[in-house]
Amino acid sequence: MLGELLLLVLLSSDGMCASGVTFIKHPINQTASQGNAVRLGCAVEGLMEPDIIWMKDGRKLLTTDQMFIMLGEKHWETFHSVKSVQQQDAGQYWCEVDFHGLTLSSQRAWITVEGVPHFIQEPQDVATLPGTPFNLTCGAIGPPEPVEVLWWLAGVQEGNARPSPSVLLVPGVNSTVKFYCEARNARGISVSRTGTIYIKELPSAPVGLKVTVMAANDVMLSWQPGFTGHSNLYTCVIQLLLLSPGRRELPDEEVVVPPHQHVLSGLNSHSNYSVRISCLNELGGSPFSPWTHFLTPESVPSTAPRNLTFDLSEKQLSLRWAELDEEELQGKLLAYKVQWTLGGEHQEPLLFKETWAHLSGAGRFFNASVQVSACTVVGCGPWSPPVVVLPTAGVHVQRNHIWVCVLFGLLALTVLALLFSICVRQRGKETHFGWVFQPDSANSSVSFTAARSFSRNGGDLQQSTLDTLCISEDLKNKLKDVLIPERLLVLGHMLGKGEFGSVREAFLRTDDSLVQKVAVKVLKSDITSSGDIEQCLKEAAYMKDFQHPNVIQLIGVSLHQRPGQRLPIPMVVLPFMKHGDLHTFLLLSRLGEQPFDLSTHVLVQFMLDVSRGMEYLSSHNIIHRDLAARNCMLDENMVVCVADFGLSKKIYTGDYYRQGSVSKLPVKWIALESLADNVYTTQSDVWAFGITMWEVMTRGQTPYPGVENSEIYEYLIRGERLKKPAECRQDIYDIMHSCWSPVPKCRPTFQHLVGLLEALWLSLSPSGSHKDSLHYVNVEGEETEVGSVGGVAQGSQEGDRWSTPWKRSINEEQEEEDWLMTPSGAALAIGGGDYRYIVDPCGGEGGDGARLEEDDDVVIHV
Hints:
By secondary structure, the protein is α+β, with helices and mostly antiparallel strands. The chain is built from twelve helices and 55 strands.
């Protein structure tokens, strides 16, 4: 015991050397430039197999780059390496090793990372009154130091660089202004987020005013604030109007917000009200919201019927009472209940719809006490004061009439008993399953009447609805008003096929018996869970509210029920696109059976259509994430529509979307920052738009020819970009090149791109007709018109603006085979899934059909 105590004293007195356990090498301070490698070393002596742990800023460092080296029997060394050091790697490091329950630590060392400044305080949005001075603050640090800050206000530099942190005094503005700051040191420049200076104004009217809870005489209201005017709302005024019974205005109520809800108390039952709300900020009140009407619940009547009177004759008792008004009734009248008491006993009450009652047998009501009550669906109200029934003068009631009634009653009961006895004898014995063993028959027999029948053959498939799917309630609510019954769709031959499933030609019958030609996107048939269905329907949900000529619109969603299967196949119904996808159209202009020219004016028109569609999507906070020529469609008027939102994301807050897990994506269209950090913004869509412009100008060539997908990131990080295509104007190339800035904030917005391309389009005059013009192309034989969302358009109609020099046929019985054939025997460019080829006349990939254009748009993990 004494030895153990001595050992503990030695361990506690010297953490660096305990019973021969010693750190003989400690990590040392290191300073490295951002992106360079750093290596820390630590060695311990005195243990056979020590478990050496690296610590950073007080936390255990979990890493796969740690290395152990055995220098002797009890001598171990370990290293921690960082291949490309970043700002988050800066901090304090040391080693720890456990020895008999005690933790021994090495000396501590710092890693200092030198690089461009990083911000510790970025400028925030400001709301101010016109002409009122305010301050903006921006702070950044190195190393290396010093760091200077340069301000930019409304695109104009404000003064000279000043030390960080910096406070800029703005004397006042009179309109909305954008601003940001730059931080500079010896390593480079960092640009802060772009802030906005808003001018405070009056708020707009509240929206979404509704009744959320209604109980007895209390009603809870809730609403959403409208535009706040860039200033906090602090109160809201509620105006209440009683419509019936008796129209009158009630006193206004002022409530403190948030929360944006309030309980109205003491309301009349079963009454019509109207309510509206106005909210106030520091400048004043908003307009009132539209009136919202509601009806309070019913209640029991508040008072009893008045003026109950009776009239007793020789044959009957007549009762009358006064009608209740609406306020007293507090609901919809169900009936009046009449009750009388005779000899201290309550008799069975009677119900009457009118304010009077005639009761026969006047003699039984002598000395009876009568009361009446009004009833609604909720219940009955109070009883009226009792009225005692007494005979009036001149009225003689013959009691003999009572005995006559009793005799007639006994006679009727006797007749009914005889009839019942006869019926019982003739019925025989009845079981649960039919009639058995008739007693008077010589041969016993059984007759059976089934109560319920069943069929072993399955009947018609039940109609699938959104409620039969295990998908989120939010998705159901978005799609319930666009669900199309399957019986209204007639599917035709397959038009396209890819990883998601297939696209089929179809005809949609509307309620007015009209037939519309559509394209139906069908999910692959091997779905096993509702998650597969939900992923397909999410794309339809994004398209539901799109209303723009350059964005493909959703017609509806249908569910195909399969025999013997629990889950249906979702089908997305889209407009029929006569000329297919833009990439295939561009390829056919170069490599088709009959090549044709596309003027610069036409190519710029294609780019302008795509930019307009993307401007619409970005204004609705939609990030496409897969913009490319293959995902743009051409309708019958050669108008380009942005399509295929399978990778789209709705962003509700901020201005970026960070992908949560590793995904497969087409790397040659992805922006530099998206490849590095999986961060997608509208600016990364702008990068993809520049790639799409390059595809259009090269008429369908694959981007970065000769560069492997795995080499794209290194290629771009070196500053390399796509080269200017042959016969491409310099001003067009300048626009697409501006989309590839390494700094996302320096790229043009889609709104700016639309303006540039509109001006460029107006400056170009359409080329005149020539021998290869699309206006005069003729196709041998009868022309057929086939198109798809993901395929190629063929044929033409007389009078069309464009005629396309190719045809396509398909064997409808072979849905799972290649879906584009060339009946003329010439090679044909096709587009399906993620690959594009030139195939032989039989649709194969070998033989005489040369593979003239291979798509590098494969996917790798990023």
